[in-house]
Amino acid sequence: MTDPEARKVIEIGYGGSERLTMNMGPQHPSAHGVFRAILTLEGETVAAVDAVIGYLHRCHEKLSETLTYTQYPSIASKTDYVAAMTSELAYVRAAEIIGKFEVPKRAQYLRVLVAELQRVASHCLWLGTWCLDMGGALGGGATVFLYCIREREAVLDLFESLVGARLLYGFHQVGGTRYDLPPGWTQKCRETVAHIEKRVDEYEDMLEGNPFFLARTQGVGVISRTLAQEVGISGPLIRGSGVNYDIRRMEPYSSYEDFDFKVPVETAGDCYARYRVRMQEFRESLKIARQVLDGLPEGPISSRPGVKSVGQVRVPKGEGYARVEGARGEVGCYLVTDGSAKPYRMKWRGASFSNLSVLPHIIPGHKVADVVAIMGSVDPVFGEVDR
Amino acid sequence: MPELPAPVYYFIVAFTVLNAVIGMVTYVTLLERKFAARMQSRIGPYRVGPHGLLQPIADALKLMMKEDVVPTLADRGVYNLAPIVFLIPCMLIFATIPFAPGLGVADLNIGILFFLAVSAMEIVGLFMAGWGSNNKYALLSAMRAVNQIISYDLPFIFVALIPVLLTGSLRLGDIAAAQSGLLGAFIFYPIIGQLAFIAYIVTTLAAENRVPFDILEAESELVAGFRVEYSGMKFALIQLGEYAHMIATSFLGALLFLGAWSGPGPAWLGPFWFLLKAMAIFLLVTWVRWSFVRIRVDQILQISWKIMMPATLLLLMATALWVAWRSGGGA
Amino acid sequence: MAPDAAPRGFLGEVGNLCRAVFLAMRSTFINFFRKPVTVHYPTVTRDYPDRFRGVLALTYDPQTGEENCIGCRLCEYICPPQVIKVEMLKAEKRNFAKTFTLELYACEFCELCVQVCPTDAIIMMKSFDVATADRRELLFDKDRLHAVGQQFDPSWATGNLLRDMQSPPKPAKTAEPAPGKAAGTAE
């Protein structure tokens, strides 16, 4: 049952006459943030990889002990800053679970809507930077990057008219959301959703049957099904390896059970399979967004009064864990409360942190050029890794 | 032509051509940037001069003003000579291209042979740059480059020989003259012409280290490859050499396949048609460059040895058989 | 004429390659003719939405012309990076703020201070155009905050509007508006 490959202790051999130790990062055009990978190369093939993280550590967990439940959600966006809405959601849900706070239906639907739009925006960024890494800053990669950023800007414009900010929102609060939809927003949202759907077709055209792209991604970075289950990855990584695990289906939160959507699963486990999973997630997210807009109920957006003072929200003593399906995987927040306005302890499960643990298993044996493709398909965001 | 002693005449012509080439190279960078920008839903350089027309001048001035940094442990002689050894062959090949009937620096009898041989010498400069930099990334990239350029020079030569076969002469002026008339260009030759043109574009991309074959300068992995330790004027020289080679192969392609200076209008419009056709090939290569992701070095080499070599060789043999059959088995 | 010595698979692959190349290049070609999305900032600015979170400012009461700020320090307590420092000045009818400093270089623009303000004194503007080369100029004192308030357009959000939007509806006494309908909702 246990995969011997996953349990094996990996020994890094730095020495040897034909081996070359090369550093990739922390400042590197294709490290997705500050990440240092010490590659041991034999010729062009990677023999071992040693990952060094921690360059972006900002003490989120300690910081949350000094900030109250009203203050921290806008800081929580800064962990996974590319998909900020889902990051905040984890913290806020943890507090709501422990305190047994009700979240009104409209707020739940709004949360689903922004989470799915955020997933679209995050996948746009993923696709753009991945192709940029593979195709070069002066080449086809840059073209796909700019197209994806153009579409991401459309979603960010939607968020800007909803919340006022483009990247780090502070949209959620304990008990519901902070902002309601302004007039004319649903119309704009529908137009944007339709527009992005058409553009996703264009990206698939550019990449799908392209033998260059397939040659770079098929068979590269294969995560076997047993390895995937042993090593603790989640999100598109595990769904690309054949495991049908999506938190939105397994433990539906925030009214996800009301919506009809498919969870894309591919069995090949290579970079191409993860690419297919994310491209299908684009479409499914847009489908969910449309369903939310069609079925949005009237009602309050928060079950608690609007924040008037800093210590307003007190969560009774207890502990709990809330998980959400972020764009990169399972984002979780484990909260230990003591009845006051500040948590006693918060532990953040970053999706990318656990996803990175798969790298020493899949990179050795590939060429240097493949390291970049694999890193891109794992899609780490170092705010989540280092917190 | 006024009566001048031969050395003075050749000096003037060579001087003019070199300056024209350098001017064209700087502005071709702007053309590429604006063209690529439009394909990416943005505007290229816009603010420096009207619509960015002074941008290349600004870039050149900036590069001239930069500090000349030489790494401490670099092999100084090799490091400093490399840009020059890289640049000279790229400039030299312009000598053989005739811009109009009789208007060229030196329309050699073995024009195309000279072109192909000299343009392959840039590999030496490239490897010198990679070695002299004392940098693992540069060395990796230089090794990949040598591999790639040598592998693609062979199909390049075979493809370039097809118009030679169809004309019966190695001289570039003759090849251009043999393509007179509207549909006389070799690209319109049934099947052979089109396939040869496509093969020419592919081998040009590879010989130029353009995407999808630009693994040696993969910015996301090797950060400018063999050029990584160069800055300032030496970097400008390397850029100059690369773009000059690019334009030279565009001109060669226009001459071999698109009929050089033939086009409607009076004869003095010939050079403009030539320029237009060369720019069309350049833009085609640019268009391909900005549309594709790159492929790995072992895949590039596979394409070269397993696909391009046999394909171009077979095409060459087919052309030879066709020419022999057309001329009735005679000479 | 094409080298047909290889089996059918080769031709199929070549056809595939041609189709892929055609699709990719067609995509770039189509985009060549689309209007660029570039906005020529700073000569041209785009329309900022109503709720844009820009620079912070203090306001005056439009009727009486007095400062709105009563120096209650609620914004100081709620600010996560603690950039606001207020000193209260007691007076007969109402209190004022004696000093009010806001360190804009550390501000997160989270809008929590706007949310808690009971008198709508601190608001955000629809502009971010206070770029400077010296960080000390971004340490706003009370005069600068009032000046900023006069200089730019205010954004929609004020404390009372935000709290009304978030609070659950009060039980209907007389003809109250429908639950959840507050300023800004129209679905």
Q: How are the SSEs placed, and which strands pair?
A:
The complex is a heterotrimer of chains A (387), B (331) and C (187).
Chain A: H1 4-7, E1 19-24, E2 36-42, E3 45-52, H2 60-66, H3 73-76, H4 84-99, H5 105-135, H6 140-163, E4 172-173, E5 176-177, H7 185-207, H8 211-217, H9 225-231, H10 236-239, H11 247-250, H12 271-295, E6 318-325, E7 330-337, E8 345-349, H13 351-355, H14 359-362, H15 368-378, H16 382-386
Helix pairs in contact in A: 4-5, 5-6, 5-12, 5-15, 6-7, 7-12, 12-15
Chain B: H1 6-39, H2 55-65, H3 76-92, H4 111-119, H5 122-132, H6 136-167, H7 172-177, H8 192-207, H9 233-257, H10 270-289, H11 297-326
Chain C: H1 8-32, E1 56-58, H2 74-78, E2 84-89, E3 96-103, H3 112-116, E4 122-124, E5 139-140, H4 142-151, H5 159-166
Antiparallel strand pairs in C: 1-4, 2-3, 3-5
Give the fraction of residues assigned to helices of chain A: 40-55%
Name the biggest interface. A-C, 56 and 54 residues
Overall pLDDT score of chain B: 83
Based on secondary structure, the structural category of chain A is alpha+beta
The residue ranges of chain A in which pLDDT falls below 50 over 5 or more consecutive positions are none
Give the quaternary arrangement of the chains.
heterotrimer
- Strand adjacency order, main sheet of chain A: 1-2-3
Give a structural overview.
Chain A has 387 residues and is α+β, with helices and mostly antiparallel strands. Chain A has 16 helices and 8 strands. In chain A, the strands form 3 sheets. Chain A has a 3-stranded antiparallel beta sheet with strand order 1-2-3, with no helix packed on it. In chain B, helix 1 (6-39) packs across helix 2. The longest helix of chain B is centred in the first third of the chain and has 34 residues, at 6-39. Chain B is globular, with a radius of gyration of 20 Å. The two termini of chain B are 36 Å apart. The mean pLDDT of chain B is 83. Chain C is an alpha+beta fold and 187 residues long. A 3-stranded antiparallel beta sheet of chain C has the order 2-3-5. The radius of gyration of chain C is 28 Å and the shape is elongated. Chain C starts with 7 loop residues before the first helix and ends in a 21-residue tail after the last helix. Residues 1-8 and 174-187 of chain C have low confidence and may be disordered. Chains in contact: A-B, A-C, B-C. The interface between A and B is medium-sized, with 36 and 30 residues.
